[in-house]
Design goal:
- Pfam families: HATPase_c, HisKA, PAS_3.
- With about 625 residues, this protein is of the alpha+beta class.
- The protein is built from 15 helices and 21 strands.
- A 5-stranded antiparallel β-sheet has the order 6-5-9-8-7, with helices on both faces. It has a 5-stranded antiparallel β-sheet with strand order 11-10-14-13-12, with helices on both faces.
- Strand 13 (about 350-360) and strand 14 form a beta hairpin.
- Helix 13 packs parallel to helix 14 (about 525-545) and helix 14 (about 525-545) packs antiparallel against helix 15 (about 600-610).
- The longest helix is centred in the first third of the chain and has 80 residues, at about 65-145.
- About 15% of the residues are buried.
């Protein structure tokens, strides 16, 4: 029988096998040789190196190796270990990556979750903060707008804590009013009883609110009206704990109401009628003061609606009143004033002035007309009398102006008669000489008929010249009825031609520089105005000549500046005194009474330039003389 031996770790397999089983697959190597030997002989042999046999246990250990085989096995082991290590490293790395991703994802989800929680909480907190800020601002604005002073009563300590606004309202400092009794002592004696009653109800827990108007003494010992509102609060044991109060300054309103009441008492029986009308077709009366009795009516007449406001108005002025109302409504005017006539109860016509205020309702529509009626009949009659007086005075002034004009013309005509005399003196002398020559040579046969006709023609020319001079002066004083177009240069040349002889005899030189400009106006009136200025210049020059010798010059310069014609007339007859230069255009003002001055020449000149020519005249002092400046629109 084959001996069955157990073999362990044969070929490094780390397991038990039967020897006969292992030898079935016998291979040609030392391991099988050793196994086979011991399997058959069951004895230890020195044939094999590297073996060790335990007799006690019948146990053989043999170790040997093949370098190539071991190298191969080591490589295989290293490769296997490396592969296993790589697999294990990859698994561990994969596990770490997966774990990391998981942790990152978890952290992201968790952080988002936490963020959402915090964000939601933060949003709620912000919304709550904004809401608190909003209500805080609204509360502050409400306190400011209400003009209230806050104060708090502690019933246990009897202390009162006032806000700064409260102290400002009454002028006290914080240490001056601290207790309930301090505050109560400041209340006006006539109001203390009412305040005390309200607090008795609060102490008795009958009521927990306080609303009262009373007068409180201020720091300056005056009293101020206040409206106090408060609410009492109890503690857990239902005892009065504290009371929150607010005081509003109503002093101005109280005083205004009193003044309005005084006014109402005043107008009730006065002459001014106060009314409040409904905005309807007939202007029905909502209220009317008792003073309507001045017109013969009573309040009952309007309260019973037997009368309305339009019934008062004179029939010829009703349309006027309606137009005024419609205009105010259309243009959204806050008020309007109208003067019209009314009929009183005795059917007498009275003039009234009515000031009306338009009152709107909550929808912005005009619901009432509030105003007053003032009887201005006496004023109107006075105005009519004044109007008649004014018309009478205007008529007198016109008559006076006509007289002034006549005086001015007479004065100018006196000047012109002298000019005519100068103009005619030479022609008359020539005509006289011709007549004498004809008389002396009447029987002289040497005088031929052509010579005689020649002298006669000369005489006729002188006579025609004198006739033309008369026509020039006549046209000069003939007033212009209508405006005409004329050359300013020709007009002034005509004027200078008429006065040149007289001015030449007085050794006064006239320099004239003018553009050829056509203007529209009253030519003769303008000549009259210029002549007055020239005559005043001549008088000033002659007065100066009496004092010293000098070259007297009058300069006339005319130019066009844009749409205006400027006429400048200058002379070197000394300056006008500063204290009178502004008065020279006033009527009857003159500085030459000894020379028979009337004081109306320059007044008429100003009237002609400003009224008739719609221009302007000015005067100013220049070096050694005076300059008149006339400005006309062209």
């Amino acid at each position: 029988d084959v001996i069955m031996q157990d073999t362990y770790n044969f070929h490094g397999k780390k397991r038990f096998h039967k020897s006969n089983v292992l030898l079935k697959n016998k291979k040609n190597n030392i391991s099988y040789n050793i196994l086979e030997y011991y399997f058959i002989d069951n004895e230890y042999s020195n044939l094999f190196n590297n073996t060790f046999f335990y007799d006690k246990y019948n146990f053989l250990i043999a170790s040997f190796y093949n370098t190539n085989e071991i190298t191969k096995e080591i490589k295989d082991k290293i490769g296997k270990i490396t592969k296993e290590y790589n697999n294990l490293f990859f698994q561990i790395f994969t596990l770490i990556i997966a774990t990391t991703l998981f942790l990152v994802l978890f952290t992201y989800i968790f952080s988002n979750f936490i963020n959402n929680i915090f964000k939601e909480y933060n949003d709620k907190l912000e919304n709550k903060t904004l809401s608190l800020e909003h209500w805080k601002k609204r509360f502050e604005l409400a306190i400011i707008a209400s003009n209230d002073g806050l104060w708090d009563i502690d019933f246990k300590t009897k202390k009162i804590y006032f806000s700064d606004k409260w102290f400002d309202m009454f002028g006290y400092k914080k240490d001056e009013v601290q207790t309930f009794s301090d505050w109560f002592s400041l209340i006006h004696n006539e109001d203390k009883k009412n305040v005390e009653k309200l607090f008795d109800k609060i102490f008795a827990k009958v009521d927990d609110t306080f609303i009262c108007e009373y007068r409180l003494q201020t720091k300056n010992e005056g009293f101020k009206w206040v409206l106090a509102r408060g609410k009492a609060f109890t503690n857990n044991t239902d005892e009065l704990d504290r009371m929150l109060m607010m005081s509003m300054d109503i002093d101005k309103n109280k005083r205004m109401k009193k003044e309005l009441l005084d006014v109402e008492y005043l107008v009730e029986d006065g002459k001014i009628v106060i009314f409040k009308l409904n905005n309807d077709k007939d202007l029905t009366v909502k209220y009317i003061s008792n003073s309507i009795k001045t017109f013969g009516y009573t309040k009952k007449d309007f309260e019973s609606e037997s009368m309305n406001f339009m019934n008062l108005i004179h029939e010829d002025d009703k349309n006027k009143m309606q137009v005024a109302i419609n205009a105010a409504l259309k243009n959204d005017l806050p008020n309007f004033t109208v003067e019209c006539r009314i009929r009183n109860l005795a059917n007498e016509i009275r003039w009234i002035s009515s000031r009306v205020i338009l009152i709107k309702n909550h929808s912005g529509e005009i619901s009432y007309f509030y105003g007053y009626i003032n009887d201005i009949t006496k004023i109107k009659l006075s105005e009519e009398e004044l109007k008649l007086k004014v018309e009478d005075e205007v008529k007198k002034n016109r008559d006076k102006d006509r007289l002034l004009i006549q005086q001015s013309k007479l004065a100018a005509m006196g000047e012109m008669l002298g000019n005519i005399a100068h103009q005619w003196r030479q022609p008359l002398n020539n005509v006289s000489l011709i007549i004498q020559f004809l008389r002396d040579n009447y029987h002289n046969e040497s005088i031929t008929k052509p010579q005689l006709e020649k002298f006669i023609n000369k005489a006729n020319k002188h006579i025609e010249y004198m006739s033309e001079t008369i026509d020039d002066f006549k046209n000069f004083y003939k007033p212009s009825k209508t405006q005409t177009n004329f050359s300013i240069k020709e007009s002034i040349n005509t004027l200078l031609y008429m006065i040149k002889n007289q001015y030449s005899n007085d050794n006064i030189k006239i320099e004239f520089d003018c553009e050829d400009i056509i203007i529209t106006g009253y030519e003769n009136e303008l000549k009259q105005a210029l002549l007055n200025i020239l005559n005043n210049a001549k008088d000033a020059l002659l007065l100066k000549k009496e004092q010293k010798e000098f070259e007297a010059i009058i300069t006339i310069f005319v130019k066009k500046v844009q749409n205006s014609l400027i006429i400048e007339i200058s002379n070197n007859g000394d300056n006008i005194k500063d204290e009178i230069i502004d008065k020279i255009f006033e009527p009857y003002f003159t500085t030459k009474f000894e020379h028979q001055g009337t004081g109306i020449g320059l007044y008429m000149t100003k009237s002609i330039i400003q009224t008739n020519m719609k221009g302007k005249i000015e005067v100013e002092n220049i070096k050694d003389g005076v300059k008149f400046i006339i400005t006309l629109n062209i």
